[in-house]
Amino acid sequence: MKKIKMLAVLLSLSLFTSLLAPSLNAYAMTEEDKATQAKTGQPFASYWFPNELLKWSPKTDPDAPFNKGTIPLKKRVISAKSNGTQTIKGELMSLDIINQHTAGTPSQGFKSIQVYNPTQWQYVDVLVAWAGSSGEGIIIPPSADTIDMAHKNGVPVVGTVFFPPNVYGGKPEWVKQFITKDANGRYPVADKLLEVANYYGFDGWFINQETTGFTAADSIAMQNVLKYMQAKKDANQQIIWYDSMTTTGEIDWQGALNEKNSPFLTQNNKAVSNGMFIDFRWNPDRLVASNQNATALGVSPHKLYAGVDVQSNGYNSNVNWSAIFPPAGQAPIVSLGLYIPGWVYYNATNEADFIAKENKFWNGNRVDPRYPENVTGAKDWQGIAKYFPEKSGISALPLKTNFNTGKGTFFNKSGVRLQTGAWNQRGMQDVMPTYRFILDNTGGNTLAASIASDDAYTGASSLLLSGSTAKNGTTTTKLFATDIKVKQDTTFSMKVKDTGATHKLILQFAGEKNPRKVVLKASGTGWVNWSTTLSPYYGKVIKEISLESTTTTAQSNAKIRIGEIALQGKTDIGYVGTVKNVKVTEKVTPERQTNARITWDTALGNVRYYEIYQKNAKGLQELIGTTPSSAFFATNVYTVNGKAQITVKAIGY
Question: Which of 317, 357, 445, 539 has its CA 20 to 30 A from that of 252?
Fold first, then answer.
């Protein structure tokens, strides 16, 4: 994995995803991106300065169709507590560098696995796609694949408006453009921000104003812009404010909610913003006072997020956890705001190291949320699972997952290799296990769980239970938190490849004390299908899904690979129509090859994703990519008589 040099942030929330010098003549796209696009046709994720944003329209931006998220935000499901210190009160906001650069980010993935695909969504309540650079752009919506990845897990994602400190290229004129009202009483930049969020399909904006040189009047103007956006935004969108600018117009980080910054959060019992990220200067007394001030103002103190900087040291960071989280059973003083948990990726030496770091960061040393860390000091890393119950986006049928992380070095379909070569498309990431990992062995088994990228049923990864087994040993794996009501035609099925085991489904129904074990029937070879009807449980609500595996032989290197889990019926799958109006815009590269922008009309029915095929040199259909979107950029496409031969197929459940 490529090591990324990051700029440490100690006192202010000032981070640059590019270290380019400030530009006096900035454009909506850097000259480098313009040259790349002219040469290759590559669509890029958007970034703007205020004046460029005012000129933007999806009708005139050829990249716009590639930057739209397509998966709606799923309803969030809260699990029962996995340990006694978790609390359902309080939230976790993650400010994370999902894309390494502000500029130069392909709209929906590219041919590489060198990309940060977070998979631990079960503790995140809001994702801020953090980015911004005085030399590239300060208004950055989340990329389309980020929107789809987060939404699939029920996590809202917001873009960033970043007014940098002057010393790092911040320009007062950018702030002035943002707070300027036109002759009709409108704020044109704010209107464009809302237009972008609505068109691209994400959930609001994080406003970070750290440029100096303003007065109390400017502060009031900024507050008025926030109120204007509150009045016009979609009800489900959020405007998040960073603790920086105060009522005097100065940049004066408070590390608290107080009279200097509360007007940016609420006025006269009306929301000005939907939450505030508290600067890292907080201390226990300031957080207690912030809780009291929020309560007095009629705002939930859990809409305040105490910033914890983990960019430099990750789980080696010293954090005064007890200042945020009092003893078990009590609500947190305020919510938690993590700054750059992507440390787990950017400081990893390879993919395996990334996975290990991600597991430890979120789930602690034992990688099991039932066992929070036993530490000696209040500032030692606790593991995020200690404080927040697991959550998922599984609230309705159908459910199908192949445990695909959204990147890989191949792509399988139904166990057959259709594509080789590195790729990433975060929107193709499947729902991962809610619990990382709750697994119990008895009877001599010592299996452990992981997400493995060496084999897959469909996609490029699968859930693997590996280790030693005994004859008639059992391994119970808790998989998903759900809120699914069983229908008359609901069935359960899973595809398993193992070295000797039988399997039962375990369902925890709402209102029932004990879970039910359901016998599964096996059919086929290789990837064996284990299935059952759930019609006897019609009308019941499934709260948890687990799997019990009984091993048939003693082995020192046993493997149970789960390639697919599906919970659905015919009424859920429904009809999937054919793809129509496929348009291919080509950019000629070397002879007999082309790059192609491909768009099509969204197919009717319950579409899971699309497969894009080319006719290759042998005249055969060859898979060149997959996406949940209705737009795809392909490189090195084979041409027939100077034209690419492209077919797009809609894939259902």
Answer: 317
Per-residue DSSP letter, 262: G
pLDDT, residue 329, reads 73
| Composition of the chain by helix, strand, coil, percent to 5 | 20, 35, 45
149-184 burial, b at 16+ Cβ within 10 Å, e below that, comes to: bbbbbbbbbbbbbbbbbbebbbbeebbebbbeeeee
Same domain, 388 and 404: no
Q: Residue holding tokens 């606790």?
A: 382
pLDDT value of position 61: 96
Distance separating alpha carbons of residues 90 and 87, to the nearest angstrom:
7
Q: Are residues 180 and 304 in the same domain?
A: yes
Place of tokens 């958007």: 46
Residue 557, phi then psi, degrees to nearest 5: -135, 55
Torsion 557-563-565-569 (CA) sign: negative
Same domain for 206 and 263, yes or no, is yes
Number of domains into which the chain is organized = 3
Q: Contact, 126 vs 171, CB < 8 A?
A: no
Our CA angle for 6, 12, 16, nearest 5°, is 35
CA distance 320 to 163: 29
Which CA distances in Å does 123 have to 12, 568, 572?
25, 26, 28
pLDDT (average), residues 528-551: 98
Give me the count of residues in the chain.
653
Output the CA–CA distances (angstroms, integers) from residue 410 to 231, 350, 417, 459, in the order listed. 47, 18, 7, 8
Where in the sequence is the domain holding 645, given as residue range(s)?
A: 580-652
| Residue 478 and residue 546 in contact, taking contact as beta carbons nearer than 8 Å | yes
CA torsion through residues 109, 45, 428, 476, sign: positive
315 and 406 together in one domain: no
| Non-local CB neighbours of 284 within 8 Å, separated by 6+ positions | 320, 322, 323
Final residue belonging to a domain, choices 525, 554, 572? 572
Question: Average pLDDT in the 603-625 region?
Answer: 95
The verdict on 288 and 412 lying in the same domain is no
Across residues 396-404, what is the average pLDDT? 97
Helices of type H across 153-279 = 172-179, 188-200, 216-232
Instruction: Return all residues near 12 (Cβ < 8 A) that are at least 6 apart.
Output: 165, 210, 244, 253, 279
Amino acid at 170: G
Average pLDDT, integer, range 479-497: 98
The answer to whether 50 and 174 have CB atoms below 8 angstroms apart is yes
Does the global pTM surpass 0.85? Answer: yes
Task: Please give the pLDDT value at position 643.
Answer: 85
Q: Are 93 and 276 in contact (CB under 8 A)?
A: no
Judge whether 408 and 428 are in contact, CB under 8 Å. Answer: no
Q: Across residues 234-243, what is the average pLDDT?
A: 97
Per-residue pLDDT at 265 = 98
567, part of any domain = yes
Q: If you average pLDDT over residues 365-386, what whole number do you get? A: 79
